[in-house]
Fold:
Amino acid sequence: MNKNFTSAPVFVIGAERSGTTMLRLMLSSSKELCIPPESIFLTELYSKYRQGLDSIEQIPEFISNLYSIFFFDQWHLDPNLIHHRFLELESLSYQNMMECIYRTYLIVNEPDSIQWGDKNPIHTLRTNIILDLFPNARFIHIVRDGRDAVLSQRETNWGKTRSIEKATQLWVRYVTAGNLLANQRPEQCIQIKYEQLVSTPVEALKYICNFLDITYSENMLEFHLRNRRENLVPIEQQDYHKLTLESIDTSRVERWRDKLDIEEISSIELIAGEALERNSYKLETI
Structure:
């Protein structure tokens, strides 16, 4: 664990179905930044273990709880390796253990990387925990037109049970939290539009790379090819991330115009109008 890492982890945040997974794959193709698949152990275990462990005898129980968090098993890390890495730590503080887990994934999967990151929509609502653990963390908040994000939610198996109203309320909650962080901490959080990322990807990615102090690479535009080869999105999750196996596609922009009826558009804009306008999306029915 003597590798020289940069000091500020990177967190990709944003509402569900806003392009967070695509951005994660793009940035992971930089060869300098390693962002593992989605899992929420960082914030899920915080309330129980925020004070860290008192002794090495507690490590097995901690690791058992770690592997109980959904999706973490899809990182395919050997629990014995994590145990070994924990024993190398100077202290078993929660921050040290969390960083150790991410770095272990990096060392196993991206040994040339010098920086680790995380991608998870729910962390948009939990940035207070992240900043408590990593005060120097940097955030990329990706924003997508709420009408398209809601439409995309309802096209997934897990989103079909959500009403238009519920899906819209969730989008408003997430995007408002991301906007607030960017306004309060502009030196640590930048915002990028999904629409900009797919229409002018080189420009958008260079802007993000400059903020993160990593090198832009054309490999970022071929994230889908690497995903096909290496299953960067775990096979178990590819059903609802099928587009990450394809190249950048601008046809996903403003699909709501053809896919939603006027009543649905009006319902979304009634709930999300202020948030849409705050993020420079023009309303159609209000």
Notes: The radius of gyration is 19 Å.
